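Summarise this fold before class:
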Amino acid sequence: MTPEVFMLCVLAALLELDTTYAFQLTFSRGIIAAPLLSLVTGDVMAGLQVGVFTELIFADVSPLGGILPPSAVVCSVISLALHAMGIELYFAFFFGVIGAILFAIAERFMRKNRFKWLVYWETQILKNPSMVLRTVLFTLATSFLMNFALIFIFTWVCSKGMLWLLPHIPTQAHFACRFAYMAVPWIGLATLVPAFRLKAR
C-alpha cells in the first residue's frame, strides 16, 4: 500500500462524513468526490470519468427512509486507487462498485449498533448539557476512524485480489469489461428517463 493510496483513504474517510454525519455539502457525491480524490493521484481525467459514471450508475437509488445507497466515495476511492496501481480503469471501476455495495451493508450494520450508543449519549447529555460539543466531536472522530478502517480494508483487499487475478484474466474478459464499462453511462441514463417522465406528469 503506497503513501498515495493511504492519503486517498484518509481523504475518502473525510468525504464520507459528508453523507450524513457532518456538513452535508454534497462533497460525498461521486461527481465531486472522484475529481477531488483524483487530485491526490494526479489523474483528474480519470477522476472526472469515475465521478460521472458513479453518479449515473447509482442515480436511481435515493437515500430515503431506511434505504442506504452504495457509497459513491468508496466506489471512487477504490477505482482511483486501483488505477493508480496500474490497473485498467474498466476493471478498477467494477471493483469500486462492489466495494461501494459492501460498504453500504457494513454501514447499515454499524448504524444499527450505533443506536445503542446514541441512547447512552443522550442520557449523559441530559444529565450534563455541557457535554454536547465533546460528544459531537467524539462521534465524528469515531465515525471518521470507522470509515477509514473500512475504506482502507476494502481498498487493500480489492488491490491484492486484482493484482493476483490480473495475470489470469483472458483477453476476451478484457474486451467484455471494457465494453461493459463504456455501457455504464447509457445504463445510467436509461434509468433516469423514467424518473424524469414521472416528474413531468
The chain has one domain: 3-200.
